[in-house]
Amino acid sequence: MIVLDATVLIAYLDDTDPHHAPAAALLRDQAGSPFATSALTLAETLVRPVSRGAADLVIDILVGRLEITTVPIMSVEAPRLAEIRASTGLKMPDCCVLLAAERLSASKLATFDARLAQVAAERGLAVLPAVG
Fold it and tell me: pLDDT value at position 129?
């Protein structure tokens, strides 16, 4: 299981993003592995498409074509999410990515965020070569 950060999803969807080519390559090269992302990450990814009236198209691409599973954030996980935030100093969206990886016992995390990559690696996750 590979948990995807918003930086990868946003870059994949935007061909003007400087990380578009590496994001597309990563998703293509890892196509045999299941993908997941947190519900908050999906919401982050949808901000621009919603403003353009393209949310349904983007959901179809991410969920339909790429088969990305969305991991909900459960209320009982609030203390664990707070613990991740307090112990890492990461922003809450990044903590949600780590919580999703933890819940799914994911082995890999894909991100272009250097700080998230560092914390993920410290927590034993393989970070795909998406950081750049």
Answer: 74
**Token code pair at residue 53:** 């009236």
pLDDT in tens, 115-130: 999 999 999 999 997 5
Provide the whole-model pTM: 0.92
Token pair for 68 = 């990305």
Nearest to 1 by CA among 58, 69, 72, 84: 69
DSSP string, 41-110: HHHHHHHHHHHTT-HHHHHIIIIIIS-EEEE---GGGHHHHHHHHHHH---HHHHHHHHHHHHTT-SEEE
**Residues of the chain scoring pLDDT < 50:** 132
Q: How far apart are CA 94 and CA 116, in angstroms?
A: 7
**2-127, CATH topology level:** Rossmann fold (3.40.50)
